[in-house]
Amino acid sequence: MKALDITDLEKRYPNGVEALRSVSLEIEEGEFFGLLGPNGAGKSTLIHCTTGLAQPTGGSIEIFENDAIGHYAEARQAVGLAPQEPNIDWFLTVEETLDYHAGYFGMPRRERRERTEELLETFSLTEKKDERTRTLSGGMKRRLILARAMMHRPRLLILDEPTAGVDVELRLELWHYVQKINQEGTTILLTTHYLEEAEQLCDRIAFIAEGQIVAEGTSEALAERFDVANLEDAYLALVGRGELSRSHIEVTPEVEA
After folding, report:
1. Given CA atoms 66, 69, 74, 79 in this order, what sign does their dihedral have?
2. pTM of the model
3. Which of 5, 32, 40, 81 has the fewest CB atoms in 10 Å of its CB?
């Protein structure tokens, strides 16, 4: 079964800007899929259309065979979203943030309490559970946003730049967690500007540029498509900055004293 099936998706704004132009994308259930592209390429717009935050101009979106545009309730139940920008209520505590989110998805009180305790422990937030979210560090906010996205046990988890601005320790910690839940069956769609992150985690990757999918495949297939050595060089070729390839950096030999 396809976890996400997007066909000829279009998004045109009233000012005439075409953010998405006939985008088609298929993600199989259980896949770890990466979506890469420069700023303004259409990544966030695609996610917003998929999660009901934006209304597409044309095309179709199905999430586990549920229409995500015309009949969104069932489709939305299957999706967890960890957005790029923190969108948490600064006046709630950490525990309340998770509990309220679970309530939106109709989870019974006892299940909400058990799931909250589980995720507080998983994301090292237990000691912070009674703190207001506005007092959290940037890294702790990232942990909370991911925990919130997982509260209702979504079958499709969408991660929009989940490790932007976090330290190396937290980035690796999050890598281990998302790999674990993917191995347990959760389908993941990841957008990131960290090429090594996509290369390490994703089964397949799509490049998006100017609102269109321009290439798709494994890291190796994309490198071959652009006739380069690796995913990073393929991406640089995509954005027209091949001269920045690390293979062009000359290493000056050390001179012995």
Report:
1. positive
2. 0.90
3. 40
pLDDT number for residue 249: 58
**How sure is the predictor about 216, in pLDDT bands with cuts at 50, 70 and 90?**
very high
HEC string for 118-168: HHHHHCCCHHHCCCEHHHCCHHHHHHHHHHHHHCCCCCEEEEECCCCCCCH
Exposure letters 176-215 (e unless 16+ CB within 10 A, then b):
ebbeebbeeebbbbbbbebbebbbebbebbbbbbebbbeb
Please tell me the total number of residues recorded for the chain in this structure.
257
Residue with tokens 């303004």: 40
Cβ-proximal residues to 98 (8 Å cutoff; 6+ apart), any chain: 112, 115, 116, 119, 120, 144, 147, 148, 151
